[in-house]
Amino acid sequence: MKILMLSWEYPPRIVGGIARVVHDLAQNLGKQGHEVHVVTCWEEGTEKEEKDFYVNVHRVEPYRINTYNFIDWVLQLNFALLEGCIKLLNSGIDFDIIHLHDWVVAFAGKVIRNTYNIPQITTLHATEHGRNAGIHTQEQDYINSIEWRLGYETKKILANSLYMKKEIVKIFNIPVEKIEIIPNGIDLSKFNDIVRDYEFRRNYAFDNERIIFFVGRLVNEKGVHILINAIPKIIEGYTDVKFIIAGKGPEMDRLKGLATNLNVYDRITFTGYISDNDLLKLYKCADLAVFPSLYEPFGIVVLEAMLANIPVVASDIGGLKEIILHNHDGMKFDAGNSEALAGIVLGLLKNNELVKRITENASIKLKEIYNWEVITLKVAEAYKEVIENDKYATTQKA
Questions:
Q1: How many domains does the chain have?
Q2: Eight-class DSSP state of 341
Q3: What does pTM read for this prediction?
């Protein structure tokens, strides 16, 4: 198949979890013999045209005019995405399907689908309603309406978890048969050449200290404040411990202020933006990963931590709830409960046998369920179903 993907992020441009999902899916589709083109947003230091192993990457630059809010910028990006897609189509590529990733690329996708009669499939990675625990502002309502339109018009929606499928049905009243659950996966070779680098690790902790690690966007829905609120109790029960909070976002200053008020700032390293290579090294240096999200449709970082062979503690919500079997391949706590989080972390820090059992079981689960090779075959089958149904519908109309 010839596949056209639209996404507003693709490595090295990483805003959230979508970039890694799109990258790994596209690469594995290419590896399995499909011709994959990803049209995405350019940023400083990236090539506008690039063959990234098995994937043809086309990066477009939004028009350089002043935009005063995110909505205006997204519209400018869609004009640029549309222009990039038209150039590809005019070059003679006859795409079989277009795969859209989230609402940000909806307008460009709609025009291409309707103008060139290309069947469309959409992955809704999250919803505006879920991210904000409801719709509270005009901007959120605008995004929510685009998500509804996108789900309504697409031939099939891919959801990465049962939680996400239920959310889409509930919020947008979309028929359940239109939604297929295909989880995100993990490249099982991701850490093959990465070992624990003690010199690197000493930038964050002494050799006798355990490292508790978080990575993600610093936004309220990721629940980093819940982890920080748990730190006083953790260090009361286990002295030799340091915390690394990797990522950037609008909550950075508030989180630093919270750490200062709790008198634990000296125990935490806020890394800000971190490169992919340093992120992999940090995973291998950590002793425990914590993901205290308040909203998480899937949680690719959990798979990364499992693959790095470190135990995971996560909120018992959303996609995290489905990935982790408590006390078997990870540990879960009630979302928002810092006391419970601290208790579980202390239990793991003091129980090496539990850590060993959890990490071994997590490794088995990754190979059996979250292997990209298996997942990619399921996505390809979903593509074929959409294409065949579109051909049938066209024949019926004729």
A1: 2
A2: H
A3: 0.86
